[in-house]
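One-letter codes give the sequence; the integers encode the fold. A sample entry reads:
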Amino acid sequence: MSQKVIIGMSGGVDSSLSAALLQQQGHDVAGMFMKNWEEDDTAEFCTADEDVKDAQSVADRLGLKLYRRNFSAEYWDYVFEEFLSEYQKGRTPNPDILCNREIKFKTFLDHCDDLGYPMMATGHYVRKGQSGDAYQLLKGLDNNKDQSYFLYAINQYQLSRSLFPVGELDKSEVRAMAEDLGLSTHDKKDSTGICFIGEKRFQDFLSHYLKPNPGNIVTPTGQKVGSHNGLMYYTIGQRQGLGIGGVKDALPEPWFVIAKSHHNNQLIVGQSDQNHLIMDDWLRASQVTWISGKAPDLNQKYNAKIRYRQADQACFIESIDGDEIKVRFEQAQRAITPGQSIVFYDGDVCLGGAIIEESNRLTSTCELKP
């Protein structure tokens, strides 16, 4: 059935082909380019100017109207301030999840209403299903590109009004089809990371907004093995960029982050003989949201991910208390990280998720428990 649809066009190949597919399906299609960032809006941090040109090129090729909207104020208020707050606490947030909930499936949808379009679409690699009267968020068929992890916080209303044209395709198919259609973005490199941060300048970017507080890197026994630039720059399990070398009696192998001690401003690290300190089979999470609006059954086996691209891990939801849950895994997990999200699945159905607060090993501020 033909519908009026606005597709969020980022200037990438996924949203470009999504627009073309919607048009082929007979929908009345328009595009919208969302600019979410004004600060440091240079080629060093963001490619918005290039992206809007690519989106306009595809819209012209397809004969679509492209609306341009600046959501940077909403992004700052509802995403970026939370992002900074979490890093200031030493946690590791995932702003892509907040951006989807607050901007791409809320502010964007409000603008669809203002323009008289009842449906919206994105280039996410997910699918939409239905069970009875409820809509379901399903994994994308391309396991390497499935993005349901980032969409777990959307609700039934948002899902009911959303279309995901490339969710049934592999990435290679998307590029091939875009090339066949003569879309200029068919060979454009995929973006990585968050637009306003860029790919390689995370520490430089974050230091513009939060004051670094250098300190010592220590082992679990308190031995100093190096210096850190600020706890906010590191995450649990991190191996790269620690700058540790030449430690007497140390094993000839990489170091990794075990925890952060905010009380002492210390980064706690270890090697393989401390690997058990970074493994855990239990966590508590908060701000839980269920896509169907209904919580799943307790003590039934589900799958979950505690980070994007992780293989599904068998788990049990032991308790639900308001917006908090406790989860037990069949197998111990490496580097459960406060601030990140745990996302639940029943087969291909994404059930919802929550923000990790603590495990048996770590508190919500990444302190090692006594």
